[in-house]
Input
Amino acid sequence: MEKHCKKCLLPDTYPGLTLDENDICNLCNNFENEIARKSSRLFENEEELGKFLRKFKKRGNKYDVLVPLSGGVDSSNALVTLVEKYKLRPLVYHNDDGFVSEIASENARKLCAGLDVDLIVWQHDMTFMKKLFRYINESDLKISTCLMCGTILYLNNIELARKFNIPLIINGFSKGGFSIITNRPRFNDMVEQIIAEVLKREDIQFVREFRNKFKLMDEHVILQEMKDAEESIRSELPLFIPYYMFKFNKTDKEAYKEDLMRRFGWQPMPTSYPCRTTNCIMIWLNTYSDFRKMDYTYFTEEYAYMIREGEFSQEQAKKDLMFSPPPGMLKKLAEQIGQDAFECPDTVTLDNWGKPCK
Ligand SMILES: [Zn+2]
Output
């Protein structure tokens, strides 16, 4: 039976993970050196951050920043703060992959109308996205489908920022999500693995599109240290900043919700997975597929980070990561993307390591 880290809960089957004599993993033991952790301390206070952002306000440019907006409470609040408090002029990007709720898209429209800012809704071509889901889900690759989908959306941000000559991209990545996206060697490896898999199916068109998309990774700079900002200005490549860098005060999610509802007619969205979060319903099928191959998912990894950071307790993480899709949901989604490689149960309940619950 596999063991897991007593602190962050990651199983020892996680690539590169080793446990010490106390069953604490190397990621937990080396946490102080984590880049995402360090980057969250780049700005001492709000004033410093404001000064920093003003450097990127280009005269004559219509937009200061590209902001992806899911329509959920976190990204909605981020947008409102960037516009009202930091006086940035955004271009807002809402992704519609066909699996997000109609309420999410409505929220995006209402919010942008209320703030009087430009909104682009990008419905990524469904053939490509469905293939991406199916190819990874049906394979034996130990790669999280949601991670790859999220990365495509991240790359769409870069594409838009380049197109509209926008110097900044600010998105709502958690420190966990940020630490994953900054690991380039790992991404390159995953991309090559997926390409090798798709080549077996002889889908050259997909390979070409997928490879081209990932070239965008080289067309932006991620803010990890201060010198990255200079690099971005010098090279005229957009600078990516995770929104958590803006949090100087503890935030009250319920108060945000009320404010959004009152001022913009915003509505709470149905939740999917992990519990309490609002996201695309495809997460159900993709996570189930991940659990068939691994005893962790992108979300286990993200939550492990948040536990180390002290943002979640183990108990909360275990609860949130409990996997129990609505009856019939897995089958329905598998049919929608034409996935037939394995049977999906009508109902299933798995713990945070993908093991059946009694
Ligand atoms: Zn650990």
Observations:
- The mean pLDDT is 91.
- Residues 5, 7-8, 10, 24-25, 27-28 surround zinc ion (CB under 6 Å).
- The first helix runs from residue 26 to 29.
- The two ends are 18 Å apart (CA to CA).
